[in-house]
Specification:
45% of the residues lie in helices and 11% in strands. The chain is α/β, with parallel strands linked by helices. The longest helix has 34 residues.
C-alpha cells in the first residue's frame, strides 16, 4: 500500500510517499495549489492520503475524495503531536511521522464538513470581523470629538438620534484648513462606517435567509433566550449531530470541560480546556446570561449551581452555557422542539420571576446642554470598604 502524507504549508507542501511493503519512502515538495495537487495525484498511485487539520486541508480533502481516495485529516491537538523534546523538527520529519503513525492507526481523524457548511461558517466569522471593524471606527470617531472637547451622545443614541449632530461637523478633507483637519478625518471615518454598515446589512440578510431554510436553526431557536446568531453558529459548529457519541464528547469538542490531572492519589480538576471554537463559547456564555431573564429552567438551573454564592456565579454561567449547548444538540439529534415540561420541576410560579419585556426606550429630549453637570451627592459620602476594620482616631 502506498501512503501519501502531506505536511501542508501556506505556500509550499512537503509530501512523503511511503511504501508499506518495503518501507521505502521519498519526498517531494509542491506548491499549495490545486494544479500542483492534481499533478501529484496523477503521477503517484496512492491508496491513502494523510494530512493535518489546517486552512488548506478542506479543499485538498475534497479533491482527494472526489478521486475516490481514502483521506484522513488528523487533529494536531493530540498528545501524539507533542514534538517539543525532539532535537530536530523539519517539514520532512513531520511528513514521515504522519505516514508512520498512519500505519500504526495512531491518528485521530477529525470531521471535515461539506463545502456548503464551511462557507456558512466562514460567513458567520466574517460577520464578527465586520462587527469589530465597525466598533473600532466608532471608537475612533469618539476619540476625535474627545480631542476637540466636543460632547456627543453616549451609547447607541449617538448613531441613531445623535447622528445628525455628528454629521454637522464633517467636512471634505480637500476643503479643510489647517485647523480643520480633524473634520476631514471625521468625514473619512464616517464614509467607511456607512460602507461597513451596508455590508453588515447584506451579510445579515444572507444569514437570515439561510436560517429560514435550515430546520436545525429554527428548532434551536425555540429555546427561550436563544437567538438566531447563537443558533446558526451552534448549528454550523455541530454540523452532523450524530457524529458525537455523548454529551461529554460534545462538551469536550466545544472546550467547556475542565482540565484534569490525576496521578496516584492526586486528582485535580482545573479550568475549562478552551479548545475548539472560541467565538461559539463566547456566544453561548452571552446566551446563558440572557436566558436567565426569559427562561424559567435557566433561572432555576443557574440558582441551583451557584447556590447563592457570589464567587460561583461565573462558574454557574459557564455550566449553564454548556447545558444549553447539550440541550440544543439533543434537540437536533432527536428532531424535537423545546419542551419545558420535561425539564422544569414542580415549582410555584411566584418563585420564578422572569423579565418578559425589555424596558422601553427613552424618548428623545434635550441631550446636550452648556450648563455644567452638578456633582452627585452620593459621591461626596465617605464609604467604608467591606471587611476593613474600623480605625479609631489616634490618641495624643
Amino acid at each position: 500500500m502506498m501512503i501519501l502524507s502531506m505536511d501542508l504549508g501556506k505556500f509550499n507542501t512537503v509530501c512523503c510517499l511511503y511504501d508499506t511493503r518495503n518501507r521505502k519512502y521519498r519526498f517531494e515538495t509542491i506548491g499549495t495549489k490545486r494544479s500542483h495537487v492534481d499533478q501529484l495525484l496523477n503521477s503517484c498511485e496512492a491508496n491513502l492520503v494523510v494530512m493535518e487539520a489546517c486552512g488548506p486541508s478542506g479543499w485538498i480533502s475534497d479533491v482527494c475524495r472526489a478521486r475516490g481516495l481514502k483521506t484522513i485529516v488528523c487533529s494536531t491537538n493530540d498528545e501524539a503531536w507533542c514534538w517539543k523534546n525532539t532535537k530536530r523538527k523539519t517539514d520532512r520529519d513531520d511528513a514521515l511521522k504522519l505516514a508512520k503513525m498512519a500505519i500504526m492507526n495512531a491518528l485521530t481523524p477529525v470531521h471535515v464538513p461539506e463545502p456548503e457548511v464551511r462557507q456558512q461558517r466562514m460567513l458567520v466569522k466574517y460577520r464578527k470581523k465586520l462587527d469589530g471593524r465597525i466598533n473600532r471606527i466608532k471608537n475612533a470617531i469618539r476619540a476625535l470629538f474627545v480631542g476637540q472637547g466636543i460632547e456627543i451622545d453616549t451609547g447607541k443614541r449617538a448613531w441613531c438620534l445623535g447622528r445628525q449632530r455628528i454629521d454637522s461637523f464633517r467636512k471634505p478633507l480637500d476643503e479643510c484648513g489647517d485647523l480643520e483637519l480633524w473634520q476631514g478625518e471625521l468625514d473619512l471615518e464616517l464614509t467607511q462606517l456607512d460602507d461597513l454598515t451596508r455590508q453588515m446589512e447584506t451579510v445579515e440578510k444572507k444569514l437570515e435567509a439561510y436560517a429560514k431554510k435550515n430546520p436545525h436553526i429554527q428548532r434551536v431557536m425555540t429555546i427561550p433566550g436563544v437567538g438566531r446568531k447563537t443558533a446558526e453558529a451552534l448549528v454550523a459548529a455541530i454540523d452532523d449531530p450524530h457524529r458525537f457519541k455523548s454529551s461529554r464528547h460534545l462538551s469536550s469538542y466545544l472546550g467547556m470541560t475542565p482540565k484534569q490531572y490525576q496521578s496516584g492519589e492526586t486528582d485535580r480538576s482545573g479550568r475549562i480546556s478552551k479548545r475548539g471554537p472560541r467565538m461559539l463559547r463566547s456566544l453561548l456564555l452571552e446566551c446563558a446570561w440572557a436566558s436567565t431573564r426569559y427562561n424559567a429552567w435557566s433561572k432555576l438551573t443557574f440558582a441551583r449551581i451557584h447556590g447563592g454564592s457570589r464567587t460561583r456565579r461565573k462558574k454557574a454561567g459557564i455550566a449553564l452555557a454548556r447545558k444549553l449547548a447539550v440541550i440544543a444538540w439533543a434537540m437536533m439529534r432527536d428532531e424535537t422542539d423545546w419542551d419545558s415540561t420535561k425539564l422544569l420541576p414542580e415549582v410555584p410560579p411566584e418563585e420564578v420571576k422572569l423579565k418578559v419585556k425589555r424596558p422601553e426606550v427613552r424618548p428623545a429630549g434635550e441631550l446636550h446642554s452648556n450648563e455644567p453637570k452638578r456633582p452627585s451627592a452620593r459621591g461626596s459620602r465617605q464609604t467604608k470598604r467591606r471587611g476593613s476594620p474600623r480605625r479609631s482616631p489616634a490618641r495624643t
